[in-house]
Write a structure and sequence with these properties.
The complex is a heterodimer. Chain A is mainly α. Chain A contains 8 helices and no strands. Chain B is mainly β. Chain B is built from 1 helix and 5 strands. The radius of gyration of chain B is 11 Å and the shape is globular. The chains are: A mainly alpha, B mainly beta. The interface between A and B is medium-sized, with 25 and 14 residues.
Chain lengths: ~170, ~70
């Protein structure tokens, strides 16, 4: 069983490293945005409506492709990169629920996730791995698909709402 | 009916007991259902009439009474 907490700590350590090195403005921005998922919701940038929360979430996951490229250059395995991408997405999912003003809507989401994934907080990393295998993916495809799901979400969102995420270069 | 028209009506929503489709109502002989989506990656709710998706929305409409 993968230790997701350890995976999350590894991610935070990586982001801290990224902020301390001269890795170019886009990746510094990416680290800052990704790290904001773990910040407290007490600042002026805290999203307060569901529309704002959706935009905030989109910004959080939009950094994953750029981070993934850096992780690849750093020699991280595809499984580790998938785990890190999952952590960003899952952390943003939970933080978004903290931001939501109507807790009855949060309860609706948790009931949905419990029914769909057997977990009120959404799919686990293990669930996604098994789901991909059940759908016929093998080897690295299993993990590349987990990394790529964030990019597909962004493309669909951006196309629909005409959004350019703030964490990405134009 | 458009989504905008639907959002202005007052369906007698009832709980279905299902996670993904938690609310349903009968309006003019048609079955209305609410689907909960993968928010915030997707819109929070989708309205379906007779299993056809009418539209998405991100918050419970003010004109709709949420069942206990």
């Amino acid at each position: 069983m993968r230790n997701l907490k350890a995976c999350g700590l590894a991610l935070l350590a990586f982001l801290a490293t990224m902020l301390s090195m001269d890795a170019g403005i886009n990746l510094v921005q990416a680290g800052e945005v990704a790290q904001s998922a773990a910040s407290t919701p007490d600042d002026n940038a805290t999203p307060r409506t569901n529309d704002e929360i959706r935009r905030w979430y989109n910004d959080q996951v939009a950094v994953i492709p750029a981070l993934n490229e850096q992780w690849r250059k750093d020699g991280l395995s595809v499984e580790t990169r998938a785990c890190k991408a999952y952590d960003i997405r899952h952390g943003a999912r939970l933080k978004a629920r903290e931001f939501m003003p109507d807790k009855r809507e949060v309860a609706d989401l948790q009931a949905r996730d419990q029914e769909k994934y057997g977990n009120p907080d959404g799919p686990t990393f293990e669930y996604l791995v098994q789901k991909n295998r059940d759908e016929g993916l093998t080897g690295d495809e299993v993990y590349e698909n987990i990394i790529g799901s964030a990019k597909r979400t962004n493309e669909g969102y951006n196309k629909r709402f005409g959004v350019t995420p703030t964490g990405m270069s134009p | 009916m458009t989504l905008e028209q639907c959002l202005k009506t007052s369906p007698a929503w009832r709980r279905s007991g299902k996670g993904e489709y938690p609310y349903s109502a009968t309006v003019g002989g048609h079955e209305w259902r609410i689907r909960v989506n993968d928010f915030p990656a997707e819109a929070l709710y989708t309205l379906l009439i007779d299993s056809r998706a009418v539209g998405d929305f991100d918050g419970w409409p003010a004109a709709w009474l949420r069942p206990d």
